[in-house]
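FAQ: What does a ligand-bound record look like?

Like this one, built around magnesium ion:
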Amino acid sequence: MTHDESSATLRVADLGEFALIDRLAAVLREEAVPARSAPADELAIGDDAAAWRPTPDRWEILTTDALVENVHFRLSTTTWRELGWKALAENVSDVAAMGGRPRRAFVTLGLPPETPIAGLEELYRGMAHLACEFDLVIAGGDTVAAPVVFLSVTVVGEVEGPGLRRSAGQPGDLLAVTGVLGGSAAGLEILEAGGPGPGDDVGRSLAHCHRNPSPRVRQGLVLNEAGIRCGMDLSDGLLGDAAKLARASGVGATIALASVPMHPCLEERFGPRAAELALTGGEDYELLVAAPADVIGRAEQALRRARLGPLSVVGRLEPGHAGQVRVVDAAGRPIQPSRASWDHFGRSGTRR
Ligand SMILES: [Mg+2]
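The answer part, i.e. the structure of the complex:
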Protein backbone atom coordinates (compact mmCIF):
# COMPACT_ATOMS: atom_id res chain seq x y z
CA MET A 1 0.00 0.00 0.00
CA THR A 2 1.38 3.42 -0.84
CA HIS A 3 1.15 6.44 1.37
CA ASP A 4 -1.48 8.20 -0.80
CA GLU A 5 -3.99 5.44 -1.39
CA SER A 6 -4.32 4.35 2.23
CA SER A 7 -4.22 7.57 4.27
CA ALA A 8 -7.87 8.51 3.73
CA THR A 9 -9.30 5.58 5.71
CA LEU A 10 -6.47 4.66 8.10
CA ARG A 11 -6.70 5.43 11.80
CA VAL A 12 -3.85 5.52 14.34
CA ALA A 13 -4.97 2.17 15.77
CA ASP A 14 -4.55 0.51 12.34
CA LEU A 15 -0.85 1.37 12.14
CA GLY A 16 0.86 1.04 15.52
CA GLU A 17 3.50 3.43 16.77
CA PHE A 18 6.43 2.48 14.56
CA ALA A 19 4.52 2.40 11.27
CA LEU A 20 3.06 5.80 12.22
CA ILE A 21 6.56 7.26 12.78
CA ASP A 22 7.67 5.83 9.40
CA ARG A 23 4.74 7.52 7.63
CA LEU A 24 5.34 10.88 9.30
CA ALA A 25 9.04 10.72 8.43
CA ALA A 26 8.00 9.93 4.83
CA VAL A 27 5.99 13.18 4.71
CA LEU A 28 9.13 15.14 5.67
CA ARG A 29 11.11 13.33 2.94
CA GLU A 30 8.37 13.98 0.34
CA GLU A 31 8.37 17.65 1.27
CA ALA A 32 12.18 17.69 0.94
CA VAL A 33 12.67 18.79 4.55
CA PRO A 34 15.72 16.55 5.26
CA ALA A 35 17.73 18.15 2.49
CA ARG A 36 17.56 21.45 4.33
CA SER A 37 17.43 20.45 8.00
CA ALA A 38 19.35 17.19 8.38
CA PRO A 39 22.85 17.19 6.89
CA ALA A 40 24.81 13.94 7.00
CA ASP A 41 26.25 14.57 10.46
CA GLU A 42 22.83 15.09 12.07
CA LEU A 43 20.48 12.38 13.28
CA ALA A 44 16.87 12.67 12.15
CA ILE A 45 13.85 10.61 13.30
CA GLY A 46 14.55 7.04 14.37
CA ASP A 47 17.15 7.04 17.15
CA ASP A 48 16.76 7.44 20.93
CA ALA A 49 17.36 11.18 20.63
CA ALA A 50 18.01 13.79 17.97
CA ALA A 51 21.66 14.89 17.69
CA TRP A 52 23.38 17.74 15.94
CA ARG A 53 26.76 19.45 15.92
CA PRO A 54 26.70 23.19 16.73
CA THR A 55 30.52 23.35 16.45
CA PRO A 56 32.85 20.78 14.81
CA ASP A 57 33.93 19.17 18.13
CA ARG A 58 30.68 19.22 20.09
CA TRP A 59 27.39 17.31 19.71
CA GLU A 60 24.12 18.26 21.36
CA ILE A 61 21.23 15.86 21.87
CA LEU A 62 17.54 16.36 22.55
CA THR A 63 14.81 13.91 23.47
CA THR A 64 11.15 14.34 24.35
CA ASP A 65 8.46 12.04 25.71
CA ALA A 66 4.86 12.41 26.89
CA LEU A 67 2.88 10.51 29.51
CA VAL A 68 -0.94 10.57 29.57
CA GLU A 69 -3.14 9.65 32.55
CA ASN A 70 -4.92 6.28 32.16
CA VAL A 71 -2.81 5.49 29.10
CA HIS A 72 0.73 5.48 30.56
CA PHE A 73 0.00 5.83 34.27
CA ARG A 74 -2.88 5.59 36.72
CA LEU A 75 -2.93 7.85 39.76
CA SER A 76 -4.56 4.95 41.66
CA THR A 77 -1.39 2.82 41.37
CA THR A 78 1.37 5.47 40.97
CA THR A 79 2.19 8.19 43.47
CA TRP A 80 2.80 11.72 42.18
CA ARG A 81 6.41 11.53 43.34
CA GLU A 82 7.04 8.27 41.46
CA LEU A 83 5.40 9.77 38.38
CA GLY A 84 7.76 12.76 38.50
CA TRP A 85 10.83 10.55 38.89
CA LYS A 86 9.80 8.21 36.11
CA ALA A 87 8.77 10.88 33.60
CA LEU A 88 12.18 12.49 33.86
CA ALA A 89 14.03 9.14 34.11
CA GLU A 90 12.65 7.95 30.75
CA ASN A 91 14.02 11.00 28.98
CA VAL A 92 17.35 10.96 30.81
CA SER A 93 17.63 7.31 29.76
CA ASP A 94 17.35 8.31 26.09
CA VAL A 95 20.29 10.69 26.61
CA ALA A 96 22.21 7.85 28.32
CA ALA A 97 21.36 5.67 25.30
CA MET A 98 23.40 8.02 23.11
CA GLY A 99 26.36 7.99 25.54
CA GLY A 100 25.51 11.56 26.54
CA ARG A 101 25.24 13.72 29.62
CA PRO A 102 21.82 15.29 30.38
CA ARG A 103 22.00 19.04 31.03
CA ARG A 104 18.55 20.70 31.01
CA ALA A 105 14.94 19.56 31.27
CA PHE A 106 11.72 21.31 30.18
CA VAL A 107 8.40 20.15 31.59
CA THR A 108 4.94 20.81 30.10
CA LEU A 109 1.97 19.85 32.28
CA GLY A 110 -1.61 19.30 31.12
CA LEU A 111 -3.88 19.69 34.17
CA PRO A 112 -7.60 19.30 34.83
CA PRO A 113 -8.78 22.20 37.08
CA GLU A 114 -9.38 19.89 40.06
CA THR A 115 -5.76 18.58 40.15
CA PRO A 116 -4.44 18.84 43.74
CA ILE A 117 -1.55 21.28 44.23
CA ALA A 118 0.01 19.02 46.87
CA GLY A 119 0.17 16.27 44.23
CA LEU A 120 1.96 18.56 41.78
CA GLU A 121 4.46 19.58 44.47
CA GLU A 122 5.17 15.87 45.04
CA LEU A 123 5.53 15.40 41.26
CA TYR A 124 8.21 18.10 41.27
CA ARG A 125 9.91 16.53 44.31
CA GLY A 126 10.22 13.30 42.33
CA MET A 127 11.75 15.15 39.39
CA ALA A 128 14.01 17.18 41.69
CA HIS A 129 15.51 14.03 43.24
CA LEU A 130 16.41 12.60 39.85
CA ALA A 131 17.70 15.99 38.64
CA CYS A 132 20.03 16.23 41.68
CA GLU A 133 21.32 12.70 41.13
CA PHE A 134 22.22 13.42 37.50
CA ASP A 135 23.24 17.08 37.84
CA LEU A 136 20.42 18.26 35.60
CA VAL A 137 18.69 21.69 35.63
CA ILE A 138 14.89 21.87 35.29
CA ALA A 139 14.95 24.99 33.16
CA GLY A 140 11.36 25.74 32.14
CA GLY A 141 8.19 24.49 30.48
CA ASP A 142 4.50 25.28 30.20
CA THR A 143 1.20 24.47 31.94
CA VAL A 144 -2.09 24.09 30.06
CA ALA A 145 -5.65 23.07 30.93
CA ALA A 146 -6.48 19.51 29.82
CA PRO A 147 -9.20 16.86 30.32
CA VAL A 148 -6.70 14.40 31.91
CA VAL A 149 -3.26 14.86 33.49
CA PHE A 150 -0.42 14.68 31.01
CA LEU A 151 3.29 15.46 31.16
CA SER A 152 5.57 16.21 28.26
CA VAL A 153 9.24 16.22 29.23
CA THR A 154 12.12 17.35 27.01
CA VAL A 155 15.76 16.83 27.97
CA VAL A 156 18.75 18.45 26.27
CA GLY A 157 22.21 16.99 26.74
CA GLU A 158 25.64 16.76 25.14
CA VAL A 159 27.93 13.97 24.03
CA GLU A 160 31.64 13.61 23.28
CA GLY A 161 31.90 12.74 19.57
CA PRO A 162 28.96 11.24 17.72
CA GLY A 163 28.02 8.93 20.62
CA LEU A 164 26.04 5.68 20.34
CA ARG A 165 23.74 5.19 17.34
CA ARG A 166 21.18 2.49 16.66
CA SER A 167 22.34 2.35 13.05
CA ALA A 168 26.05 1.74 13.70
CA GLY A 169 25.93 -2.06 14.14
CA GLN A 170 27.81 -4.44 11.80
CA PRO A 171 27.34 -8.16 11.10
CA GLY A 172 29.56 -10.09 13.54
CA ASP A 173 29.23 -7.51 16.34
CA LEU A 174 28.39 -8.95 19.74
CA LEU A 175 25.17 -7.73 21.40
CA ALA A 176 25.54 -6.91 25.10
CA VAL A 177 23.41 -5.41 27.89
CA THR A 178 24.21 -3.56 31.10
CA GLY A 179 22.72 -4.69 34.41
CA VAL A 180 19.96 -7.29 34.78
CA LEU A 181 16.60 -7.52 32.99
CA GLY A 182 12.95 -8.22 33.75
CA GLY A 183 12.74 -6.50 37.15
CA SER A 184 10.44 -3.71 35.98
CA ALA A 185 7.94 -5.97 34.18
CA ALA A 186 7.88 -8.27 37.22
CA GLY A 187 7.31 -5.25 39.49
CA LEU A 188 4.42 -4.09 37.29
CA GLU A 189 2.73 -7.51 37.58
CA ILE A 190 3.10 -7.41 41.37
CA LEU A 191 1.69 -3.86 41.54
CA GLU A 192 -1.25 -4.72 39.28
CA ALA A 193 -2.03 -7.75 41.49
CA GLY A 194 -2.42 -5.45 44.51
CA GLY A 195 1.22 -4.66 45.39
CA PRO A 196 3.70 -6.41 47.70
CA GLY A 197 2.25 -7.61 51.01
CA PRO A 198 3.80 -6.88 54.44
CA GLY A 199 7.25 -8.47 54.75
CA ASP A 200 7.44 -9.23 50.99
CA ASP A 201 10.95 -7.92 50.42
CA VAL A 202 11.29 -9.57 47.00
CA GLY A 203 8.01 -8.02 45.84
CA ARG A 204 9.06 -4.63 47.14
CA SER A 205 12.42 -4.80 45.43
CA LEU A 206 10.78 -5.69 42.08
CA ALA A 207 8.11 -2.97 42.48
CA HIS A 208 10.93 -0.48 43.12
CA CYS A 209 12.52 -1.44 39.77
CA HIS A 210 9.26 -0.50 38.07
CA ARG A 211 8.55 2.71 39.96
CA ASN A 212 12.06 4.18 40.30
CA PRO A 213 14.16 3.05 37.33
CA SER A 214 17.71 4.42 37.36
CA PRO A 215 18.88 5.74 33.97
CA ARG A 216 22.32 4.38 33.00
CA VAL A 217 23.99 7.75 32.36
CA ARG A 218 27.32 6.81 33.97
CA GLN A 219 27.38 3.51 32.09
CA GLY A 220 26.64 5.29 28.78
CA LEU A 221 29.52 7.73 29.31
CA VAL A 222 31.94 4.85 30.01
CA LEU A 223 30.69 2.84 27.01
CA ASN A 224 31.12 5.84 24.68
CA GLU A 225 34.60 6.48 26.07
CA ALA A 226 35.50 2.78 25.57
CA GLY A 227 34.73 3.06 21.85
CA ILE A 228 31.21 1.58 21.62
CA ARG A 229 29.45 3.19 18.62
CA CYS A 230 26.11 1.33 18.49
CA GLY A 231 23.53 1.32 21.26
CA MET A 232 20.10 2.21 22.63
CA ASP A 233 18.20 2.02 25.91
CA LEU A 234 15.84 -0.83 26.76
CA SER A 235 12.40 0.72 27.18
CA ASP A 236 10.22 -1.80 25.33
CA GLY A 237 11.94 -5.12 26.16
CA LEU A 238 15.16 -6.75 24.92
CA LEU A 239 13.54 -8.73 22.12
CA GLY A 240 11.65 -5.80 20.57
CA ASP A 241 14.45 -3.30 21.13
CA ALA A 242 17.11 -5.62 19.65
CA ALA A 243 14.87 -5.81 16.55
CA LYS A 244 14.85 -1.99 16.34
CA LEU A 245 18.63 -1.80 16.65
CA ALA A 246 19.09 -4.57 14.06
CA ARG A 247 16.61 -2.92 11.70
CA ALA A 248 18.35 0.48 12.00
CA SER A 249 21.70 -1.22 11.31
CA GLY A 250 20.33 -3.20 8.35
CA VAL A 251 21.20 -6.59 9.89
CA GLY A 252 19.59 -9.54 11.69
CA ALA A 253 20.38 -10.72 15.22
CA THR A 254 20.46 -13.85 17.35
CA ILE A 255 19.87 -13.81 21.11
CA ALA A 256 20.93 -16.77 23.28
CA LEU A 257 18.20 -16.98 25.93
CA ALA A 258 20.47 -18.69 28.48
CA SER A 259 22.87 -15.73 28.42
CA VAL A 260 20.24 -13.04 29.12
CA PRO A 261 21.02 -11.67 32.62
CA MET A 262 17.87 -11.95 34.75
CA HIS A 263 17.01 -9.88 37.81
CA PRO A 264 18.06 -12.16 40.72
CA CYS A 265 14.52 -12.23 42.23
CA LEU A 266 12.74 -13.30 39.04
CA GLU A 267 13.08 -17.07 39.24
CA GLU A 268 12.09 -17.19 42.89
CA ARG A 269 8.82 -15.35 42.21
CA PHE A 270 7.93 -16.26 38.63
CA GLY A 271 9.55 -19.70 38.10
CA PRO A 272 9.45 -20.74 34.43
CA ARG A 273 8.09 -17.32 33.35
CA ALA A 274 11.31 -15.59 34.51
CA ALA A 275 13.08 -15.94 31.15
CA GLU A 276 10.09 -14.52 29.27
CA LEU A 277 9.98 -11.48 31.59
CA ALA A 278 13.73 -10.86 31.10
CA LEU A 279 13.44 -11.24 27.31
CA THR A 280 10.26 -9.24 26.66
CA GLY A 281 9.55 -7.13 29.78
CA GLY A 282 9.65 -3.36 29.19
CA GLU A 283 11.01 -0.38 31.10
CA ASP A 284 14.26 -1.77 32.52
CA TYR A 285 16.15 1.22 31.07
CA GLU A 286 19.39 -0.75 30.84
CA LEU A 287 21.57 -0.15 27.75
CA LEU A 288 21.82 -2.50 24.75
CA VAL A 289 25.01 -2.15 22.69
CA ALA A 290 26.65 -3.82 19.69
CA ALA A 291 30.39 -3.86 18.94
CA PRO A 292 33.25 -6.13 17.87
CA ALA A 293 34.33 -8.60 20.57
CA ASP A 294 37.53 -6.71 21.50
CA VAL A 295 35.62 -3.44 22.04
CA ILE A 296 32.97 -5.22 24.13
CA GLY A 297 35.79 -6.74 26.22
CA ARG A 298 37.36 -3.33 26.79
CA ALA A 299 34.00 -1.75 27.67
CA GLU A 300 33.17 -4.58 30.09
CA GLN A 301 36.47 -4.06 31.93
CA ALA A 302 35.97 -0.28 32.04
CA LEU A 303 32.49 -0.70 33.58
CA ARG A 304 33.81 -3.14 36.17
CA ARG A 305 36.71 -0.84 37.09
CA ALA A 306 34.23 2.03 37.57
CA ARG A 307 31.96 -0.30 39.64
CA LEU A 308 29.10 0.26 37.20
CA GLY A 309 27.97 -3.36 37.02
CA PRO A 310 28.28 -6.07 34.39
CA LEU A 311 28.14 -5.93 30.60
CA SER A 312 26.70 -9.29 29.51
CA VAL A 313 26.99 -10.64 25.97
CA VAL A 314 23.51 -11.86 24.95
CA GLY A 315 23.94 -12.56 21.24
CA ARG A 316 25.31 -11.20 17.99
CA LEU A 317 24.38 -9.26 14.87
CA GLU A 318 24.30 -11.29 11.66
CA PRO A 319 23.89 -10.70 7.96
CA GLY A 320 20.32 -11.34 6.89
CA HIS A 321 16.84 -9.86 6.92
CA ALA A 322 17.07 -6.42 8.60
CA GLY A 323 15.41 -6.39 12.00
CA GLN A 324 14.81 -10.13 12.22
CA VAL A 325 15.78 -11.50 15.66
CA ARG A 326 16.11 -15.23 16.37
CA VAL A 327 16.09 -16.49 19.95
CA VAL A 328 17.95 -19.76 20.56
CA ASP A 329 18.19 -22.11 23.56
CA ALA A 330 21.40 -23.40 25.14
CA ALA A 331 21.71 -26.04 22.38
CA GLY A 332 21.29 -23.41 19.64
CA ARG A 333 17.73 -24.48 18.75
CA PRO A 334 15.28 -21.67 17.83
CA ILE A 335 12.64 -20.71 20.44
CA GLN A 336 9.36 -18.94 19.69
CA PRO A 337 8.87 -16.19 22.30
CA SER A 338 5.25 -15.59 23.26
CA ARG A 339 5.20 -11.79 23.15
CA ALA A 340 7.50 -9.41 21.28
CA SER A 341 7.41 -6.01 23.00
CA TRP A 342 5.22 -3.08 23.86
CA ASP A 343 3.71 -1.08 21.03
CA HIS A 344 2.25 2.16 22.33
CA PHE A 345 -0.80 2.22 20.04
CA GLY A 346 -1.28 -1.54 19.77
CA ARG A 347 -3.25 -3.89 21.96
CA SER A 348 -0.86 -3.89 24.90
CA GLY A 349 -2.78 -1.14 26.73
CA THR A 350 -1.68 0.63 29.88
CA ARG A 351 2.02 0.33 30.60
CA ARG A 352 2.06 1.18 34.28
MG1 LIG B 1 15.00 4.97 23.92
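Follow-up question: can I read anything off the structure? Yes, for example: Residues 1-37 form one domain.
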